[in-house]
Design a protein that fits this description.
- With 146 residues, the chain is mostly helical.
- It has one domain.
- Helix content is 71%, strand content 0%.
- The chain is built from five helices and no strands.
- The radius of gyration is 16 Å and the shape is globular.
- The two termini are 31 Å apart.
Length: 146
């Protein structure tokens, strides 16, 4: 179903407001970590749920469970100039912690969290290898399909 721009913006605004409440809950759950570490985790989760998931259509954080491969394996690498194998690992950790917090607070099902964890576990080595290859000017892009 296609929506017009005004409907898209209104939906995104509503989702961002809900996401920001979830991010506060997440931030509070990280109180035992060093401030810089907690900030990075929140920033990584925020980038995922408030930017990527709203990029093409207004999707709630629940949809993020099934889109992690596209985000970390393609979008993150191509979209952010600062992407490295290390930043992919850091982003995956922050996102996984965010969804664990959502599980702990009854916002997602255990099956969904387990699926996300498996996607990260199996995908991370490939995502990191693709990122290293993409960042190496001597290598062909892993994303050239022709």
């Amino acid at each position: 179903m296609e929506i017009n721009y005004e409907e898209y913006e209104k939906s995104c605004e509503e989702i961002r407001a809900a996401n920001n409440r979830l991010l506060e809950l997440f931030r509070d759950s990280l109180s035992g970590l060093k401030p810089g570490t907690a900030r990075r985790h929140v920033e990584n989760a925020e980038l995922y749920i408030n930017s990527y998931l709203l990029y093409e259509e207004p999707l709630t954080f629940e949809h993020g469970v099934s889109r992690i491969d596209d985000y970390l394996g393609y979008y993150f690498i191509r979209r952010f100039m600062w992407s490295t194998p290390g930043t992919i690992r850091s982003a995956a950790t922050g996102i996984k912690k965010f969804y664990k917090c959502m599980l702990d607070h009854g916002k997602i099902r255990k099956e969904d969290y387990d699926f996300l964890c498996e996607e990260i576990r199996y995908g991370l080595p490939k995502w990191q290898a693709d990122c290293a290859q993409y960042n190496d000017p001597e290598e062909d892009s892993p994303f050239d399909f022709f």
